[in-house]
Amino acid sequence: MTTPLRKDAARNWQRIVSVARDLVDEGTPLQLNDVARRAGLGVGTVYRHFATPEALLETVAAPCLEALAAHGQQALTDADPWRSLTGFLFHTVEAQVTCAALPPVAAAATDAVPRTTELKKSLASVGATLLARARDAGVVRPDLAAADLVPLMCGIAHAVSVHGGTPADRGDTAHRYLAALLEGLRTTPPSA
């Protein structure tokens, strides 16, 4: 159990995270000294809250990861294996192209914040379960492995970042690319 922050410390934490989110959204790498300057806080204050830029980046990405994990849990309750898998993948790729903090956090081999590790493991487990259900139902290619999902989603997110048009167009582009990919993954029903 963590102790609640004092009001001034909580305000500082919010200010740091808000500045970091703005920097990430504009594509600027996080440097704690720069965050402190832009937030109008002492460097020591920023370091007390976030020991590393990675910890700060993971904190910025946390709401997105939590929303994806919640959607994943909801997808597990859907009885239709194709719909639950594709719905989860659409939410995932949309999050990757709308939350600038998510791709680097998802791609990182190690995590600075234990909660990030927990959320990433949960998402991997949900993806593997949804894929196994779809494979068992015969609606996806049998050679598709759970380990293939992350690189495929990252590939789409990268393609959208390069060719996706304006930020307003990126969600639609990601959906179009994913729909094309999913058609390639889906098995064709046997001829009658």
From TrEMBL:
SUPFAM superfamilies: Homeodomain-like (SSF46689), Tetracyclin repressor-like, C-terminal domain (SSF48498). It comes from Streptomyces triticiradicis. It comes from the Bacteria. GO terms for molecular function: DNA-binding transcription factor activity; transcription cis-regulatory region binding. InterPro entries: Homeodomain-like_sf, HTH-type_TetR-like_transc_reg, HTH_TetR, Tet_transcr_reg_TetR-rel_C_sf, TetR_SbtR-like_C. This is TetR/AcrR family transcriptional regulator. Residues 10-68 form the HTH tetR-type domain. Keywords: DNA-binding, Transcription, Transcription regulation. PROSITE patterns: HTH_TETR_2. Residues 31-50 bind DNA.
